[in-house]
Design goal:
InterPro entries: Mo-dep_Nase_C. This protein is an alpha+beta fold and about 90 residues long. The protein has three helices and two strands, in the order H-H-E-E-H. Helix 1 packs parallel to helix 3 and helix 2 crosses helix 3.
Length: about 90
């Protein structure tokens, strides 16, 4: 990683952390688009036996924590401010 990209990533992290969710439609879309768990973990099986495990790679994403925080803020907005039952989205 070059020296120039580090401040760029940091500014993107700060921007993601500063997003305030104030619209129910935006909150619903964020909640639906950002997965609650890493979708990449897989067990490769052959004849019923696991031969290889691919671990979750989401922690390698430099924005993983910020995206989880944004999803959580959207969820809290829907439940606390809008009184929406999020089980309808599952």
């Amino acid at each position: 990683m070059t020296q120039r990209s580090v401040p760029f990533l940091q500014s993107l992290r700060q921007w993601l952390n500063q997003i305030e969710v104030r619209d129910p439609n935006v909150a619903k879309q964020l909640y639906k688009l950002i997965p609650a768990q890493c979708p990449f973990a897989r067990d490769l099986k052959f004849m019923g036996r696991t031969i290889f495990h691919i671990p979750p790679l989401c922690k390698l994403n430099p924005f993983y924590d910020e995206l989880m925080g944004l999803r959580f803020r959207a969820l809290c907005y829907l439940v606390d401010e809008c009184g929406i039952d999020i089980q309808a989205f599952s």
